[in-house]
Every structure is written in structure tokens, then in C-alpha cells.
Amino acid sequence: MIHRECGVLKTTYEADMALYPLPIARRAVGAVAALFFLVLPFSVHEYYLSIVNLVSIAVVGALGLNILVGYTGQISIGHGAFMSVGAYTAANFATRLHWPFWLSLPLGGLMAALVGAVVGIPSLRIKGLYLAIATLAGQLIIEWTINHVTWISGGVQASIEVPRPRLGGFEIASQREMYFFLLIFVVVAITGTLNLVRSRVGRAFVAIRDHDIAAELTGINIFRYKLTAFAISSFYAGITGVLYTYYLGIANYEQFQIVTSIDYLAMIIIGGLGSVLGSIFGAIFVTLLPILIRYAMEAFGGLVLSPQAVLNTIPNLRLILFGALIVFFLVVEPEGLNRLWRNIRNYFRLWPFAY
Amino acid sequence: MVDWQFFALLLSNGVLIGLMYSLIALGFVLVYKATDAINFAQGEFVMIAGFLVAVALGAYGAPLWLAVALALAVMIAFGFGLERVMLRPLIGRPIVAVIMATIGLAAILRGFGPLMWGAETKPLPLPIPDEPIVWGPFFIPPIQLLGAGVSLLFLAIFGWFFLRSRQGIAMRAVADSQQVAMAMGVNVERYFALAWAMTGIVSALGGLIWGNLLGVDVHLALVGFKVFPVVILGGLDSIPGAIIGGLIVGIVENVAAGYIDPWVGGGTKDFAPYVLMILALMIRPYGIFGKQIIERV
Amino acid sequence: MKRWLPIPIGLVMMSGLTLGSPGSAAASHEIVLGLQCDRTGATQTVGVHLCPGYHDYVRLVNAKGGVEGHKIRAVEIDHEYKVPQGVEAYERHKKEGAVVISLYGTPHTYALTQKLTEDRIPGTSPGFGRADATDGTRYPYVFPLAASYWSQAGAAVDFAKKQLGGLKGKKIAFLFFDNPAGREPIPVLEDLAAREGFQLKTFAVPPPGVEMGAQALDIAQRYRADFVIAHLFGRSPSVSIKELKRVGYPLRKVVSFVWGSAEADVEAAGGFGVAEGYHTMQYAGVGTDFPVLNEIREMYKKEGKEPSKEMASTVYYNRGVMWAAVAVEAIRNAVKAKPDGKVTGADVKAGFEKIKGFTLGGLLPPLEITPNDHEGGGWVQIWQVKGGKFARETDWYKAYQDVVAKHIQEAGAKK
Q: Which domain holds residue C157?
């Protein structure tokens, strides 16, 4: 991308697996961090920051789902429900016990991890389609429970308003403040995932995905690692749910229904299964797609269609494009945007002497 | 009313609506049986078929037989085309890929239907009376009777097809082992396409009947969610299983609504079948009639 | 493979967006209205008829010279009934400089309440959203405008009382969609049951509500309800009409809340012949016979066009006109106080609170919005399916507002 990598020879496995394989990568990361922490937030309108904020939340959730689906090979259609578990846990702690966000947030994640591990138990016996449907059932059962147990949902409206997150005496309210708040979690989530997948646990996940029986023969405890994968993935989902809650100021189960689970699956498929970078691409892409289509239609749609028809066309077109992209990436480019990105980079790696 | 009578009425309700669910589940089972593909867009198939009939009847004033013939033709062609364009490249890929591809297809169809024909709810009138047939204490709506009849008819036809006809036996061979079937001179791809076309037929009639019951708009696709408990309970690859699974789900829903709802103060109708399904997954994952070859880990 | 943080691509896309987006071309004195809509999500059958009504009214106002000489512009954003998209839509509206935002959806109203209040932009939520937002002192920037579910519950019970000639010892069934919005009226109904001495039993219809044979059977055969109050969404209202009819329950003993009361619901149930007798509650007038609708048809004729086909679905279309009309009236009040047209959200809020006796020839109820009462009274009409169309059964009325007020107060005290 920005740097070249010639002249670097690795002599140890440690060097090969390092987080920053090249010295220059460290500097590139530093530059990117500076861009996001110092330049971006002060150079664009708050509206664009609000879009970045939605992307940030989605990145955390997509990373979590990718750990489960992309790295461990277990499908889950219950990601949205795990978010709601995190959201309601944190909301209850924040409103009943008035705990600050830095306590309620990890608690939300942990509760989601616990529930996720329970929903993941069927994965010990079944896989593929059966697991997909079992997690779908988990999604519906969690939704139903939150909807009907007022002790959890805080009343018939099943909505809990939470106070804004506070740090000391400082209240995080505006989109710009929220941007920094969320960016920290994005950084932590990305570093956490990068480190997880190159650890012993991460390699066990990949082994289970690639061949579960072979993995078992090499001494990997499949039961334990599958549940771990469900728990970690759900922990991310729970954190995502809490972030949504603090971002919107409300925990509401209607935003964590099956469509949400499917959106997140779409993110990691379009972005690239089993790739951190892919999760980020996917989250950016799926969040921006409707907005970009809207801008495009607002700019050019009027040339061919009446204003009313434009308004009717935008959303349906978005839905069609959304589905078509999922199908396209599955059929044509199973490794997603991440692969496209790598192709581009490999081309420029030797450019202009590509022979 | 005497309680046993209420119970009997709930049962009759459950049986009729259950057979209507079976009608949708049949399409799902057919595809799985022949091609091992999972169709998460079954509800959307039904919706598109419903749109076709309703628009042909309403906007173009076509006679019913023509509208149904049109829907059948389009759905068959759609099944063929879909297999060719989308499913065939996915053969041999992990099951997750097929599941997600059909989820993507579902989004396409949900956007396409309203874009083409408008999002407003369209009636789908059929020349059958609305008044229920009263038989003793039972009220039987003709449309549900028709739906149940079509379901049972399909059961008979597909039963004959898979047991007796040459194509059906070939299709079973393909389902058993694609490689062996190929070695025996069966054109596997042709049978894949045939299976999708048959799903098209089932969906077309499902769309006709459910469309009459609910009216046609995107909500019609929601009946697709009823499929999963039905097929898991009955067995993913079993035609009689789809019927029995439908009956179980229909009856469980009605009994749950009649006897459990008052206790919990909420609707358990959609919840109960899924709980039952989880139990089934733990105890007998291949369903009541399914082949016992589920891969355990 | 190098592992470094890939965020720059996001930045590139972001900056592309910044450059490529049309700037908020707020011409001087142009007043912007934000409209959130759902044309592809769970409530699309409502949105595709309602939102065109909104746009047509805005066009009509502009065709007649705007609001006190200032042009207005409606920016619609489809949020697919998803909350994060709703928040994005809100931020976009804020960027465009909207002085009033017509919200769409109960969860969205909950999610945006705090932001609206902080940014001082009034948001309207007619016929959905939070019932306790009626209290303008607690939710200064949320305007339910139309009867909340609590007011609808009061009105429905009152209607049942008149139909049955007294409620003592009667059995009322509440058939509701099993989600938060569906459950919202239950506390009010329970209070009214205690006060009027009727028996109340609730029947939940879980989403998606495509089947409710057992509930209908229970209502008609086991519980033997004297009257049914239905509060359903999506496709389930038409299913309820069919199922109740099937088990032999007379539809003239059914009254539906506002979201189960459109032409589409009746059509999908098999047409007006099948649903004969069905009572529907409305918060805007039904039918084509209103002066403002004639003006819109005139406007289309002058442009040499056919009136939009959405006008045929009068229940939702008229509601769209109403959403726009009340918002425009609030802007008008604001502009009257600030003739240069540079009104802010706070001005429009004050404008809303001055609305009184604005009925558009009977399309709107006689709203009277005050700083305390953002609901404007809780008015509804009952229309009955009769002889192939909706016939007006009652004039604008409201009932049991004291009970509703008590609940609003309790909700306020709880926080």
C-alpha cells in the first residue's frame, strides 16, 4: 500500500508471526492512527463523523462474527441476539445500579459471551445447516425472552434509556466526542483480533475450520475451542450491542433482530471470511452502500425518473444491490473485498516492473 | 364451550394450517433431497409467485388459469435459471456459502418484487367461497382445505415420482452420491436443474394459496420462516417428513396459543415450534423420517 | 502478508464522500423539512402510500407560494425501519438544516428523543412512538400530534361502551401484536377494566402474525367476547378479519387501532364485501372528499399529469398529508413570528405549540397543541366498512383522557 517490502528477510518463526512484520509497517500504522485521531475528526462535518461512528460500531461486530464464522468455520445467525444481550445487560447495570460505562460495558460483553457459549452448545453435536438453524432458534428465543420478561427489558416498551457515557466529569455527547470514544474500541478490537488469530487459540480455531477431525487428532480439544469461539465472538457482539446502546442512548431489542444478524453475515462475506482486514472492509462497505446509493440516485436519478419514482427506487435498488453483491462475492470472489485489495496490492508491489 | 371441544377445534385448526406450512416446506425439501442445497429464500419464492398471479389477475385482467399457468412457467424457468447462474458455481463449496447465497437471493427478490410491481398489498382473489364450511362444531375455510388438498396431492405425486418414475429414481441416485450417479450415466446437472424447477412449481402453488390467504406484498415472504421447524422435525430430505413436520408445527402452535399463552401473557406461537425444534436437534437431528447420515462432530 | 492497520481505505472512501456529496444547498430562506420513511422494510406497505402524501402536500404549499413567501423543501430518507439507519438519516437531516423532522417508527422515536431535545429540533411521531411523550414538559421536542396508543385505548373502550350500551360485566378481548408497541395500551385497558367493571382478556399475536386461528377461536368460542379491540400491524390485521369471520365472530363487534385500518388491510382480507361491519379507528380523515385533496388533484391537472396513484389509498395518503400539514402549519406560525424565514427548530417548536383549530376542512382533528399537551387532545374518528367503502361512524372524539393523563404522570414520575 504505502510501503515496499524488499530486502527484508525473516530468519525466525517469531519474526514471521510478528504483528508488524516489517519495520516500516510500524510507521505506517502510526501514520494511519495519526490520521484517524488527529486529522479526520477535525476536518469533516459532524454528519460524516456520524457515518464513521456507525462504521466503527459495525467493525467491532463484524470482527467478532468473523472470529466465529471466518476463523472457526461455525455459522451463526444469532449475532444480533447476542448484541441485544449485551445491550440490555449494560443498560440494566447503568440504570439500576448507576454503574459507569467502563464497568457496564465489559459486563455486557461477558453476559453475551455466556449466553453465546450456551447457544453454541449444539455446535458440539451438529454443524452446517443444522447449526445455522439452531442459532436462528437461539436468536428467536433470546428475542422472545427479552420481549416478554419485563425484569430484563424494563417495561412493556422493552426500551431502556441509558445516560450518556461519562469519563470523570466529562460527558460524551456530540458526534465528535462519540467518534473518539468509539475509535478506541475499534483499535482495541482490531488489535485484540490480530493477536488472537496468531495465538495458540487462533490457530486452533483455524485448524477446526479446516478439518475438525484432523484438528482433534493433533490434540485440539474441539469442544472447548468451539465454545471458546462462540464465547469470544459473542463477547464482541455484546460489546457492539453496548456501544449501540451508548451511541443511541437507548437499548431497544427491535434493532437487534434477524435482519441485523444477516447484515453482519453479509459484511464478513463481502469483506472476506477469515480476515481482519476483510471484516473492516465489509463493515465499511455494508454501512456505506445505502448512503452512497442514495447520494448517487439523488444526483443522477432525476435524469431518468420522476422524483416520486426516485424515492421508491432508491431503497429497492439498494436491497437488490445488497443481495446481488452477496451472491456475487460468493460465486465469483469467495475471499471478498480483502482478496480484491490483495490483488491490487500485489500488482503494485512490483510496479512498474511487473515481470 | 366444553373444553374437549375447544381442544378438538384447535387440533383441526392446527392440521389445516400445518398442511399449508407443509406446502411451503415441500419446496425446501425437494431441493435439499436432490442437491443438498439449502434454500433460505423459500419464502421469497412464494412471494414472487404470489406477485405474478396477483399482478396478472389484477393489473392485466388475465383469467385465473392463465395467471396460474404464467406463474408456473415463470417459476419453473426461474428455478432452471437460478440453478444455472447461482447454484452450479457453488457446488462443492461449504454449506455456509450456499446458505448465504440464498440469503442474498432473498434480499434481491424482496427488492425486485416491490420495484417491479409496487409495494402496496394486492388481493389475490380465487373463485372459492370465503364462508367457512360448517361441519358440526368445526369451521373449515375452503382456502385452507384447498391448501391441505394441494399439499396431500403433492405428497402423492412426489411419492410416486421418487419411488416409481425413472427420473425420480435417478434423482435419488444423484442425492445419494453424485459421483456414482455420474458414473452410471446420470446427467447430474440436469437433475439439479429439474429439482429447482420442481421447487418452482411448488412455490407457484404456495404463492397462489398463501397469497389468497394473506394478500400479496413482501410480508408474504415471512411464511418462509415457518419452514425451518417443519423440515427439521420432519427430516430435511423426506417428503412425508415435510407433511408430518407441518402437522406437528401447526398443532403445537395452536395448542400453545390456546393453553400456554394465557399463562405467560405473550404469544408463544412462533416460539414453541422452535423450542421443539431445538429439542429435536439435540435428540434426533435427522428428523422423524430423515436419513440418519447427519455428520456428527 | 503484511499485517498493518488498513484503515486508510476507509479514509479514502470518506473523503471521496465529502467531495462527491452535494453540499447542503440551502438557498436563502428555503425551509427544510426532514422526512424519515420506510419503503423497503417491515412497514413498507404503509410507507409507500404515506410518504407520497407528505410530498404532495409540500408541493401544493410551494405551488401556492410557499409558507408566507418562503419555499419549503422536504428531504426524504428511507431507513428501512432500521434504527442505525434512522440515526444516520437524522444526522443527514440535521446537516441539511431541517427545522422539523417527521420521524417514522416507534424504536426510532425512542432512539432519537434525546438527540432531538439536545439539538432543539422538533420531531413528530403521529400514531406511533412513545405515549408518554404527550407530556411536553418532559419531552419538549417530541410531538405525537395524533392520538397515542393510550388515547386510542381510551377511545376504543368508549366506543365499545356505546356499542354495547354499558360495559358492566361485559367481556372485552384485546387482540394485539406481540411487540412493545402492541403491548403499550395494556396498562390503560386494565385500568379502564377496573373502572368500568368489564372483563379484559388479552390475546397475543406473535410476529409475523400470518396465522391466528387459535386466538380467533378462543375469542369467539371459549372466551365469547362481547367486543374485540384489535391492535395489529403489518399483514396481521387482514388475517384477523379473515380468521374472526371464519369462526363466526361478527366484525361489527371489532374495532381496530389506527395501523390495522387501511384499505389495503380490507382488500387483503378479501375485499370490502368480506369485511363488512369492521370498525376502524383513524387519526386523519378517510376518503377523497376533502378540499385539500381536491387542490392536490387540481395541482396535478395543471401540470398536465394524472394524480398520483397513491391517492387511492386514502387512509395512509391522507395521513401523509396530515403529517406534512401540521409540520407546515408549525413552520407558518414560526415564520409569522420571524418574517425573514430564518426559523430555527426552537421557533418551530413554539410554532407547534400555537396550533389550534387547524383542520384542513375536516381532514385533521381539531388539534390543540400546548406546551403541556403535545398530543393535541388525543382525537380519533371511527369509520366502518359499509357497503363497499369506509363510512364515518363517529365524529372526532376523545375519551378517558383522565386515565391517560394519570398514566402519563406515572411514566414521568418513574424516571
A: 149-282+380-400
In a domain, A342, yes or no: no
Asked whether C3 and A34 are in contact (CB, 8 A), the reply is no
Does the structure show a pLDDT above 90 at B279?
Answer: no
Residue C294 lies in a domain: yes
Asked if the model's pLDDT at residue A73 lies above 60, the reply is yes
pLDDT-based confidence at A8, cuts 50/70/90? Answer: low
ipTM of the complex: 0.85
Contact check, Cβ <8 Å, A327/B86: yes
- What is the reported pTM? 0.88
Q: How many domains does chain A have?
A: 1
Distances (CA, A) of C402 to A300, C155, C165, C185, C189: 53, 12, 21, 15, 13
C264/B267 Cβ within 8 A: no
Q: What percent of chain A clears pLDDT 70, i.e. is strictly above it?
A: 92
Q: Compute, in degrees rounded to 10, the torsion defined by CA atoms C359, C368, C390, C54.
A: 60
In angstroms, the separation between the Cα of residue A97 and the nearest Cα of chain B is: 28
Task: Look at C310 and A82; give whichever has higher pLDDT.
Answer: A82
Q: How many domains does chain C have?
A: 2
Answer yes or no: is C256 within a domain.
Answer: yes
Q: Are residues C163 and C175 in the same domain?
A: yes
> Is C247 in Cβ contact with B139 (below 8 Å)?
yes
Could you list the residue range(s) of the whole structural domain that residue A57 is in? 45-265
Is residue C184, in this structure, part of any structural domain at all? Answer: yes
For chain B, which residues make up each domain, given as ranges? 20-128+141-224
Contact A157 C130 (CB under 8 A): yes
Question: What is the C-alpha to C-alpha distance for residues B12 and B9, in angstroms, rounded to an integer?
Answer: 5
pLDDT at C410 over 90: no
From the list A69, A134, A316, which residue is nearest B114 (CB)?
A: A316
pLDDT, position A64: 96
Check residues B165 and B295 and name the one with the higher pLDDT. B165
Does residue C185 lie within any of the structural domains? yes
Tell me the C-alpha to C-alpha distance, in Å, between residue A95 and each of A161, A235, C414.
8, 21, 12
Report the residue of chain C nearest B18, measured CA to CA: C211
Q: Which residues 96-155 of B have a C-beta within 8 angstroms of C?
A: 110-111, 114, 118-123, 125, 130, 132, 139, 141
Name which of C205, C214, C234 is nearest B254 (Cβ-Cβ): C214
